[in-house]
Every structure is written in structure tokens, then in C-alpha cells.
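User: quick one
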Amino acid sequence: MTDAEQLLDKAFVLADLPVLRSLLRDCAIVAGMAQDQREEFVLATHELLANAAQHGGGGGQVLVEHASGELRCQVRDRGPGMTAGCQDGSGLRVVRALVDSFDIGDAGPGADITMTMTVRPAAPGRVPGAEGRC
Amino acid sequence: MRIDEHTLAVDQVRQGDHAFAHYADDEAQWAIVSAFTGRGCALGHKVMVVPDPAMSRENASQRIRASGGMAERALASGQVVCTSMREIIYPDTRFRADQQLLRLAGATEQARREGYAGLRLFIDMRWAHDLNLDVESMMAWETGAEELFASGEFAAVCGYDRRAFDPEILDAMRAAHPVAVLERPGELRAYRTERGCHLIGDADAATRPEFRTAIEAALDEAAGGSVLLDLSQICFLSVGCAADLLRLTRRSDYRWVVVRCSPFQARMLRQLDADSIATLVLDDAAGPA
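Assistant: Done. Structure below.
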């Protein structure tokens, strides 16, 4: 990803997830995602964050970047890495179905997951934030 | 505090809303301020924050900055401004509702001229104590300001600290606002309806026990051959809570279980095999996404 605009870089623990979901919606709005895709992005990222907070040593770091019509999210945690059991969970199955790419890194301790979504913009004439609630 | 169909998560507040917020600790207050401010920044709105008169502008800016996201840049560029009611009404020293309407309408126009999509205001209502405004005048202001919101270019969250206002005043002020926000982001609240239950807020790992309890109670107690689980005001539904909903529905004896939800939530439920439950009806006409 070249000339990426960094939209979020934040450490987190489980208690931060509600505030992070709000920040993630903000990122999706800035990237120009239509409302239904914003919710897909928030759900997919939330599931990664929740997985990291619950099974990955209590928390981690989330990085969101936007470039070339794509929103990229990286979640790193402090846990033992992604076990086969974790990867088969319904949360990650839903994530994989929502995103365009999903990679699990294996560098060092902890899991390092990166997902990307190609931005589907709102229909012309639709004002972000005026469509509906959430 | 009462929960009803006028209650929303702060993330669901949009332009044109005049919202009541209440809290009894600083963390809850600044979580609300940060979410409201961050959304305004993302949507290209100018944001004015009026903190407790006892708090300095520098401290308020620091609290907003600490929330992360786009707040730092927005404070530096002037998109987010911390101010005070004394500064807003200057050179006047007494609050007058008619003047305030003109001032805020003017500030909205000014924001539009500066290239912003609209204006958002968070205001800690302790300014009323600072300016010795009586309860009747406060109520007159809260109920008489609706024309400001009609254009859809202005939104306000009026923050009431429960440590500073009597419960009767809070109840009256809540009723005077078209929208009330949940006390803090991430909260889940439920209220019973004749046909089932209505859920508001976020259903995730932290609120999963409350989510399950509300669904179980509705499935156990609703009368008749069908039950309505209204998720249309749910701000966030995790995969785990969605799976719980399906498990509980599968076990129930109802002829019909109607789940009112957004199209996005319906798609997630279908992905989790909702269509295999013959008694389940997904009513997804409720939301935009």
C-alpha cells in the first residue's frame, strides 16, 4: 500500500472495544464507505479485536490505513498465536466472508492479522451520516 | 433512568438530533463527548465542545485528544473548538434564549461558509448553574430550540451530570429532548414490550449475559403464538450474540419468532444458518444498512 493515510493506531484491551468500534466507524466514513459496508468493516475488525483481547494476552495494537480505494486493518496481540481452534471459530468465518483479503502472520510471539476491504462508496447524492442510524 | 424508543447509542446520533445525555462520572462523560466529536470530524462537521465551567479549555482539549482517532488533527485545524457559555454569549452576561437561537443559527451558517457540512455542539449543562439560570428558563430553552434542528445541519448533545442536578429535573429534561443517549458507549439496555422485547445499544462479549437474559425472558414470558425480538435500535451485534439469539430461538416453543433488525444484521444471521429455523422470521425492513 503506497502513500497510505493512517487513520488509527491504538493499543487496546477488552474494555476499549466499544470506543474502538466508534473510532472504526469514523475511519470507514473517512474512507468513503457506504453505510452497509461500514457495518461490515466494524464487525470484521471487532471480531479480530475481541479475539485478540480474549485469547491473545488481553489486548494488542490496531492499525487502520486507507489508500488506493482500500481500507487495511492490522491487529497484533500478545498471545500464543492463532491456534487451529481459534481459526475455526464462527467469528473468524464471518470475518473471512466479509473481507477481500485476510492474512495471518507468523512473525514472533502473538498473532498478527491483516485484512483489507475495497471501498464501496455510497451512491451519488447520499450524504454520509444522513442515511440512517449506525 | 427510563429506557424507551427515544433512547439511542451515542454512535447513532445524527444531524438534526437534539439529544439528552446523562452521566455520573467523568469517564462516561468524556466517552460520550469523544464519540460525538469523532463522528462529527469524520463527517466533516465543525464541532463545538462546552465543558463544565469549572474545567479549563486546555484540560477539555486534552481529554478529547486522548480519545485518539482524528481528534488531534481536528483540534489543531480548528474543526473542533472548546469554548464556554460565557464566551458564546459575550458581550452579554445573561443568557437569553432568543439571542442564543440566533447565535447558534449564525454559528451553523458560519460553519457552512467555512466549508464544513454542518455544526455539532456538546454542552455540559452545568453552565446553567454558572449563569444562575433557573429551571423554568432552562426548560423553556430546551423545549423552544427545535427550529435550530429542522435544517438537519445542526446537532446537539446536552450533557447532564447527575451529581449536579436533582433527579426530578433530570427526568423533566430527558422528557424535553426528542432523543436520549445511553449513559456510555457499549452499554446494552432492554425493555419489555407487549409482544416481546426491544434492545438498544451494543451486544458484544461484555453485554452478552444481558443480551441472553433479555432474549430468554422475552421467549419465556411473551404471550400468544408469536414473539417479537426488536433489534432495530441495536447499534452493534457481535457474531457471538447473533449465534446466541439463534440458539435460543431454536429451543423456543413459539410458532413464530420475529426478529426485527437491519438488513446487515439479517445477512449475518442468515450466514449463521438462520434460514434453517423454520419458526424464525427476519423482518429486515427496519434499518438502512
